[in-house]
């Protein structure tokens, strides 16, 4: 058994990956190199702060006229619109807009173009970017036939493949006095939204798109789901969802496990 690990800064946090396999160190090093290249490539597309990033440029020009976007970004715009609809608008990459995202983000499939009909719309993939990256990592691990891996993005977005080298699963636990819910994970993902501090009024960071203000209904939301991208959208939406909205979201997605605090 050979192990390899990778750690580097990306998307305003740290990406960490641990692999084990019955291959050579050179092979696992190649896998890690490809993983890092793809994560940084996604960041170059999705960042709204990097002046060279595609989303940054789209935010500056898409209110003037339709803008052609790359196939990669167009795919994530489509998926984000779908997730917005499935969560009744609570997951929203354009939450600051005065108009509902589905009414002001217009996608032309034939031309691969995007247009903003509301000048206040600014796209922000911060609530799902790590999930998108983890989904890409899962594809890379499948291509290289890596059966066992643990991947963490800032400790709040997690992907697992197979099992720990000395157990029949990966075990997730959380440093929180009110958490007593260790999760055995194999071939699954996890998204954590919220915080562990005591003064949550000072730490609220997720905006309720309906009210255009920070308004958490929970201190902590942990979602286990087969897709890391969907897990991120679900956990973000559940942070601000009322009881009826929460029921709708849970019916729309196949959540493997859920913890609300």
From TrEMBL:
Species this protein is from: Persicobacter psychrovividus
Signal peptide: none
Top-level taxon of the source organism: Bacteria
Cofactor(s), names only, from the UniProt record: Mg(2+)
Keyword vocabulary terms for this entry: FAD, Flavoprotein, Magnesium, Metal-binding, Plasmid, Transferase
Protein name in the entry: FAD:protein FMN transferase
PANTHER family referenced in this protein's UniProt entry, alphabetically: FAD:PROTEIN FMN TRANSFERASE, THIAMINE BIOSYNTHESIS LIPOPROTEIN APBE
Record's keyword annotation contains Magnesium: yes
Coiled coil regions, renumbered to chain: none
UniProt EC number: 2.7.1.180
Reactions that this protein is recorded to catalyse: L-threonyl-[protein] + FAD = FMN-L-threonyl-[protein] + AMP + H(+)
């Amino acid at each position: 058994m050979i192990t390899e690990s990778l750690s580097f800064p990306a998307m305003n946090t740290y990406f960490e990956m641990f692999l084990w396999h019955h291959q050579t160190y050179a092979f696992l090093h190649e896998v890690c190199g490809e993983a890092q290249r793809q994560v940084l490539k996604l960041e170059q597309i999705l960042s709204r702060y990097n002046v060279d990033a595609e989303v940054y440029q789209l935010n500056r020009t898409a209110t003037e006229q339709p803008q052609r976007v790359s196939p990669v970004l167009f795919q994530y715009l489509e998926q984000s619109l779908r997730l917005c609809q499935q969560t009744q608008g609570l997951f929203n990459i354009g939450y600051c807009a005065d108009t509902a995202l589905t009414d002001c983000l217009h996608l032309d499939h034939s031309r691969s173009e995007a247009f903003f009909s509301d000048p206040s719309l600014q796209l922000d993939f911060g609530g799902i970017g790590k999930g998108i990256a983890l989904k890409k990592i899962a594809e890379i691990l499948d291509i290289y036939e890596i059966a066992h891996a643990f991947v963490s993005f800032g400790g709040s977005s997690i992907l697992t493949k197979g099992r720990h080298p000395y157990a029949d699963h990966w075990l997730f636990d959380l440093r929180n006095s009110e958490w007593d819910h260790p999760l055995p994970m194999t071939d699954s993902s996890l998204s954590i939204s919220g915080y562990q501090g005591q003064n949550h009024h000072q730490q609220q960071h997720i905006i309720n798109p309906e009210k255009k203000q920070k308004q958490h209904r929970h201190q902590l939301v942990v979602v286990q789901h087969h897709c890391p991208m969907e897990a991120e959208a679900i956990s973000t939406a559940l942070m601000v969802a009322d009881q009826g909205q929460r029921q709708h979201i849970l019916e729309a997605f196949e959540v493997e496990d859920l913890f609300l605090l």
